[in-house]
Amino acid sequence: MEKIQIKSIVNFIIFLLFLTNCSTTIKTPKYESPEVKTDNVDENNARLSEISDIPIPSKSIIDLEKTFILGKGDNWMGRLSLINKENIEEIYSFFLNEMTKFKYKEKSSIRSEVSTLIFENKKKTIFIKISKVKFGKTYIEITATPVN
Fold it and tell me: Distance between CA atoms of 112 and 92, rounded to whole angstroms?
């Protein structure tokens, strides 16, 4: 008889332990809002100010994933990818008018759904590709290569 009572007491204790470990509330980690970087605009402006030999449309934002630049000032080479809210025609006209002020000569221009402009000076050639992206924005890809 004693064995039955001990066995039932042990089973009862295990049952109580099981019940106390089961909870009706779900424990989830406390929500913490992600960090929002406010210096992104400052970083964007700082990078654009490093390029001094071509005009940059106002309120352009750098697409950092597609930008690859070596050098600074007049000696930069690579690809500068920008996003702007202006339409393709306005961006096209901007570069057509402003590049001559930076002593570049127009070598080629194609105005279409994906517009292209090619300019050259004594040191480098600038290829500009302008296309439309979602939400009425314009994608500008500027590639600078040495003249040789």
Answer: 10
Coil, strand or helix: which one is 16? helix
The predicted-structure confidence for 75-134, as pLDDT tens digits, reads as follows 899 999 999 999 999 999 999 999 999 999 999 999 999 999 999 999 999 999 999 998
In a domain, 16, yes or no: no
Torsion of CA 68, 77, 145, 83, to 10 degrees: 50
* Sequence-distant (≥ 6) Cβ neighbours of residue 99 within 8 angstroms: 54, 55, 106, 117, 119, 126
Among residues 95, 97, 137, the alpha carbon closest in space to that of 116 is found at: 95
Q: Is 54 contained in some domain?
A: yes
Domains in the chain: how many in total? 1
8 within a domain of the structure (yes/no): no
pLDDT band at 35; cut points 50, 70, 90:
very low
**Each residue's pLDDT tens digit, 36-78:** 444 455 566 667 778 889 999 998 999 989 999 998 888 899 9
The domain of 64 spans 50-146
Q: Is 81 contained in some domain? A: yes
Q: What is the CATH number of the domain that holds 79?
A: 3.30.310
Pick the residue with more confidence: 80 or 3?
80
